[in-house]
Design brief:
The protein has 4 helices and 15 strands. The chain has 301 residues and is mostly beta strands. It is globular. The site of one 2-acetamido-2-deoxy-beta-D-glucopyranose has 10 residues, from helix 1, strand 5, strand 10 and strand 14.
Amino acid sequence: MKSKTCLKLLILKIGGCYACSVFMLIVHFLSQGECSTFNDSFDISWGNDHVKLFNNEQTVELSLDKASGSGFTSKNNYLFGSFNMKIKLIAGNSAGTVTAYYMSSDSSSHDEIDFKFLGNLPGKGYHLQTNVFVNGVGNREQRIRLWFDPSTDFHNYSILWNQKQIVFGVDSIPIRAFKSNESLGIPYPKNRPMKIISTLWNGENWATNGGKVKIDWSKAPFIASFQAFEVDGCVTSASPSPSPSPSPCVGHWWEQPEFEGLSQDQLNKLGWVPKNYMFYDYCKEKSGRFSSVPIECAINP
Ligand SMILES: *[C@@H]1O[C@H](CO)[C@@H](O)[C@H](O)[C@H]1NC(C)=O
Ligand SMILES: *[C@@H]1O[C@H](CO)[C@@H](O)[C@H](O)[C@H]1NC(C)=O
Ligand SMILES: *[C@@H]1O[C@H](CO)[C@@H](O)[C@H](O)[C@H]1NC(C)=O
């Protein structure tokens, strides 16, 4: 399967040579079929007649109306890797809608890595919620505002997931890093392969202003578009038994030392996001939601 795609690999292969990169990019854009298409990696999982493929299957539109939402799911399960999706969100009044890009395992005590875009009234701006579930337990929400209008253009939402950390990125700016630290007893998703999933659905009972603002169905259908599908992960259906059994997915580029933590430049950017754009962080919850501060809060910025 052509799961390794496009730009990243080309750029990695030619290393630091800028001129080569530009040349290869031009070659890339001229050559048809180099990129993996939607059908290479994904199946429509929900609302068949609410999903449209365009542009040689390089763009997918999900739509939501009163009859149904829609979604797609990766054919494969992945244990660690790099997963990027370009998304253009619903324009205008998106209040009550939820556009989700996430990874999830199948099992009941599931693991999940989550981007959820919570729609809003015109001019109010989307809220982006991230979350991490381990062994079926989430409750690790962070919410940020975005520094651009995500409905006018495609932006790149990325998940880097390895044994040491999960990094959520927006246009290559890390907005959240969730670190593993077994010696501190921090729960971390590393035993359950996950599928990549995108969905568009009716979340009006909670998504906007705590559920007070409902969907204006006169604006339906609501449409979100997806592109790029950069999937570079370790394909496996095997759930490795808990450590110390070795994982079947070792030795990939995302396990290299440089991806074990954030670079200073990334840390600076990561500092900038919470300071300016984060308005909810479960680690700062004071309302008695948790009987004690979750342990990972001690090491996650
Ligand atoms: C891609 O998948 C869609 C939806 O299943 C299907 O309608 C279309 O024919 C497929 N395209 C190709 C080239 O296989
Ligand atoms: C998306 O962001 C990731 C992480 O920074 C990057 O590696 C990738 O090349 C980007 N993809 C596109 C299409 O911009
Ligand atoms: C994990 O915890 C140990 C013990 O406190 C500490 O020495 C180490 O630096 C921590 N690792 C990370 C990634 O925070």
